[in-house]
Write a structure and sequence with these properties.
This protein is mainly α and about 325 residues long. Helix content is about 50%, strand content about 5%.
Amino acid sequence: MRHSFVGRKAMKLICITSILLLLIILYRGSKVGSSSSPEPYPRTRLTINESNVSPSNIKKGVERIISGRRHRLETECKKHPEILHSAIRAGLMVNDEYKVIYCPVAKTGASNWRRVFLVLRHTFENVNDIGPGMVYQYKFQKLASYKPEERLFRLQNYTKFMFVRNPFSRLLSAFRDKFIENPPELFSRDHIPIIKKTLGLSPNQEKVTFPQFVQYLAETPPHTYNRHWKTMDQLCQPCAVHYDVIGMFETMKTDAEYVLTKIGSSRIKEFPSIIPHETQSSVPDTMKHFFSQITLKQIKELYKIYEADFALFGYDIPESIARNGTQ
């Protein structure tokens, strides 16, 4: 009789436990499926299938992602007050007709945005008429050219945007462009000798290798870096400027079209199709090939240098590098 009572009591306990587990599962499922509680930082890559979605819904999807990036940036800036720069970078590009301010970041499509600005100011009629390298023959209106009160007015009232890229992909693109593919004569004359001298290399050494380049970065104060590998945080000071749009190189077409629509550009229907200095540095096999040449210690040193960029813009170490680093 006693065993029967104990058995019934155990069965009752099991039933109660099962019901509680079922309720927990149902609750979690409703939270995952709910649209009223979006994740704080939406995915950095746009995954909208444009063939099955109306233009208005595509725009809403992009706006939500852009808003998520701003939210993440603001949160990270509050968590890291040490990266708040006291002075606004005066090198920001300005167009008064369209009331827009752009911070150019090398290796994130900056040459194409210069093409856009040349068309916006009526220097050219079509962005695709401007060949590679031509954009650097022209001077652009900079924020530094205005009086302090005029700068403040534009920062408060103009649409401000910048584009970012995975820091390691951007770094590799800069290295390949400046040291391997087709180094500009001016760069080879002015910058490569400095790197060789810093590392104690022979002036007669023909090329700088990727491991040597990484070593140079580790031994050099980041604020003295060339603009092609200076941190995006230092270039654009996003914790101080409060950009309206943070575009990403990885989703360039969609983000660029969003910016052009936002500023009301009637002269440019789509972003330039020309991609200058294309190095395919975001391809996993290319990333793995170069980063496998450096040690895990050097990868960690690089991450420390670009840590603010990873945190502010929601990037992770590329999977091909992370896997290699654990082997």
